[in-house]
Amino acid sequence: METQNDPLLTVKQIATYLSINQRTVLKLVGEGTLPGVKIGNQWRFRKSTIETWLDDQMIGTSHLSVEPRQLESPPSHLLDLASCFQAEHIVAELSAVSKTGIIEELVVLAHELGFVRDKTWFMGALIERENVMPSAIGNGVAFLHTLHRNPDQIVRPFVVLGRSTAGANFDSFDGKPTHLFFVLGLKYNELHLPWLQKLSKILIHREHVEAILAAPDAKAIFRAIAVAERSQSGELSG
């Protein structure tokens, strides 16, 4: 249902908002890239969902993308992967099997590691985002994060990862089970993480996902990600 604070937009309005032409909008929504719903023979778009989709574009965790909007000024917070992610941030085999259970298990880990001040807030914020648009990007991977940055609640930017070898239903756009759940603790609105975009591109490749799924423990998972990162860097430089 349309509300005053979250209006349904037309193709023309979305084209103006994204600074692209209407034909591109129709192509993207027809491919399933741009989130929209067809009412009769007309496409409509919820503004909050489009804003969430744009946020994924900006941090590089969307499965497909158009050219993202450029930041007005250079980002002031640049981080590398090692500063946010280590082997101890990984749950090698999740106990939970439901979406809510998986989120809760990873929130508890983030809280125990001292990254989040209020785990109840973080749990609710992640679920709020999932309710707007699922975080699973396909190929067995999900990148969970909050809709809004809260520097008072996030102690420092971080990533935690949970693995489910059996897989779980996370409403992925490709309709397949999700196995790797990355929870992103993003502290700043302007935070730009180049390695996040790289990580997302790495996990498009099924062989990298399979290597992570085959790893016997958290340290091996971490090594598999590092190997995939080096492989991707080689491809980009070659």
Structural overview:
The chain has helices at residues 11-18, 22-31, 47-59, 99-112, 119-132, 194-202, 206-214, 218-237; strands at 8-9, 37-39, 42-46, 90-91, 136-138, 141-144, 158-168, 178-185. It has 238 residues and is an alpha/beta fold. The strands form two sheets. The chain has a five-stranded mixed β-sheet with strand order 4-7-8-6-5, with helices on both faces. Helix 1 crosses helix 2 (22-31), helix 4 (99-112) packs antiparallel against helix 5 (119-132) and helix 7 (206-214) runs antiparallel to helix 8. The model is unreliable at 64-76 (pLDDT under 50). It has eight helices and eight strands. The chain folds into two domains: 8-59; 81-237, 3-Layer(aba) Sandwich (Mannitol-specific EII, Chain A), CATH 3.40.930.
Query: What is the first-to-last residue Cα distance?
Result: 50 Å
Radius of gyration: 18 Å
Strand order of the largest sheet: 4-7-8-6-5
Helix content: 40-55%
Number of helices: 8
Taking pLDDT < 50 over at least 5 consecutive residues as the criterion, the unreliable ranges are 64-76
- Mean pLDDT figure: 83
The CATH architecture assignment of the largest domain turns out to be 3-Layer(aba) Sandwich
Largest sheet, in brief, is: 5 strands, mixed
CATH class of the largest domain: Alpha Beta
The count of domains is 2
Element pattern in H and E:
EHHEEHEHHEEEEHHH
Give the name of the CATH superfamily of the largest domain. Answer: Mannitol-specific EII, Chain A
Based on CA inertia axes, which overall geometry fits? globular
Strand proportion: 15-25%
Number of strands: 8
